[in-house]
Amino acid sequence: MSKRRNHSPEFKARVAMEAISGRKTIQEIAADHSIHPIQVSQWKRQLLDGASELFTRGKKSKDKEEGQAKEAELFQPIGKLQMELEWLKKILSSSNARELRKLVDHDHPELSVSRQCALLGLPRSTLYYRPTPVREPTLRIMARINALYLEDPCSGSRRIVEYLAREGIPISRDRVRNLMRRMGLRAIYQKPRNTVPGEPSERFPCLVDHKQVTTVDQIWATDITYIPLQKGFLYLVAIVDLFSRNVLSWKLSNSLDTEFCLKALEMALEGGRKPEIFHSDQGCQFTSSDFVARLQAEGIKISWSGRKRCYDNILVERLWRIVKYEEVYLPAYSDVWEAEISLARFFWRYCHVRPHSSLGGRTPHEAYTKNEPCSSRPELTISGAVTVQ
Known about the structure:
Blueprint: H1 9-21, H2 26-33, H3 37-50, H4 62-74, H5 82-88, H6 97-103, H7 113-120, H8 124-128, H9 136-151, H10 157-166, H11 173-183, E1 219-229, E2 232-241, E3 247-253, H12 259-269, E4 277-280, H13 289-297, E5 301-304, H14 314-328, H15 336-352, H16 364-369, E6 380-382, E7 386-388
Parallel strand pairs: 1-4, 4-5
Antiparallel strand pairs: 1-2, 2-3, 6-7
Helix pairs in contact: 1-3, 2-3, 10-11
């Protein structure tokens, strides 16, 4: 049984900060630092959870300081061989796994590779591990699976395999199943539990009835979708007013966590308006205590899609289809920055220029603000946060 990989706190913090910046996908960061993508997501989550502890006041207790002093004395390198002490001097300036791997001497006459790894604090699995980014052919297959799923959301892995076989793409069902699971795609059909929530302390009923939506700010809805890139993928969340179809806010993230959903909610509430009802599915991001508490603090009624209610969020799903067919699949984004700029332009055009027949030829922004059509170009917002002229 292989030992668990160990990395220095400085290395973890540096990788986590790079993931939080959102300038690269998780796969690109993992390839740059020779680690697994899952570790990048875990370190990002740990840094966000423990950030508040950095600002807590108070000193350490005297007992804790004495205990740390005794522990340091117990682990002093007493009895180490002089040869090992001299060899360990080389690692004083090393802080990450890539540099530590360079210090391992496979031809050392007295120290075995296992002993060197133990002295360096470097697991042997990390020494021999060579991460591989998501290959471009795999990304193309994922994009095609996503397109087929949009055309036929009732398709499972079996039917997707048949679709791909007709297009001359031989692929096994196991691989299709794993890729669909990675992208969060599930066939729509009746089953015992359609969505597994994040174990919320309180549950909320579904309050959405599309026939009863008669005014703006009556119901806001949200959902998350997958955005493919040439080197990885991103997650997109948007908050939509169901009456006007206006996209109130949106946010991109390289990991599927709660923070970017909360930021999108904050941006939607910045305008000073709020809905009577906020609707979502029972994904762990929207059922988390932080997200629920923020809605309750504003006095907003919470609505969750339940069993046999797959059409409650159909207007947001329709938005995803428009976004992907009219924007995402055409340019094939190369990186996060290009995706963010292009999506900003598209959402501006969708809300301010594109007329909707269901709104009597008005744009969503006109229907939401009840303004007359205007020819002037409003401000363009990246992820609903930074204004660009």
